[in-house]
């Protein structure tokens, strides 16, 4: 939810970004990342509960690596916007 709130804040409350395109893209990326994290978390929780109840292999780290990669990508995008703005 934090990423979705940050995306909304950037689009509606960030007056320092000069380009509305950067503002919109950054906001949409953060909202999309927040939605993806919610879906991945729910799916992973459901899979883990199924494995605990019925046995089997626990989910691997692939989703966690996706989340980390996405967060690093957003951080780089924010850094690029900050550098362009200054």
Q: Give the helix proportion (percent range).
A: over 70%
Number of DSSP helices?
Answer: 3
Mean pLDDT: 83
- Count the E strands: 0
Low-confidence stretches: none
Please indicate the count of domains: 1
- What string, H for helix and E for strand, traces the elements in order? HHH
What is the approximate shape? Answer: elongated
Q: What proportion strand?
A: under 5%
Largest sheet: none
- Category by helix and strand content: mainly alpha
Describe the overall structure:
The chain has 86 residues and is mostly helical. It has 3 helices and no strands. The protein has helices at 2-13, 20-54, 62-85. It is elongated, with a radius of gyration of 17 Å. The two termini are 29 Å apart. The mean pLDDT is 83.
Can you give me a brief rundown of this structure?
With 86 residues, the chain is mainly α. It has helices at 2-13, 20-54, 62-85. The protein is elongated.
Keywords for this entry:
86 residues; elongated; mainly alpha
What does the secondary structure layout of this molecule look like, with pairings?
Layout: H1 2-13, H2 20-54, H3 62-85
Helix pairs in contact: 1-2, 2-3
């Amino acid at each position: 939810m934090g990423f979705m709130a940050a995306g909304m804040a950037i689009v509606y409350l960030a007056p320092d970004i000069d380009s509305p395109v950067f503002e919109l893209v950054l906001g949409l990326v953060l909202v999309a990342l927040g939605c993806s994290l919610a879906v991945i978390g729910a799916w992973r929780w459901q899979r883990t509960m199924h494995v605990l109840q019925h046995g089997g292999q626990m989910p691997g780290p692939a989703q966690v690596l996706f989340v980390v990669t996405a967060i690093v990508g957003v951080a780089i995008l924010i850094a690029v916007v900050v550098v362009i703005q200054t």
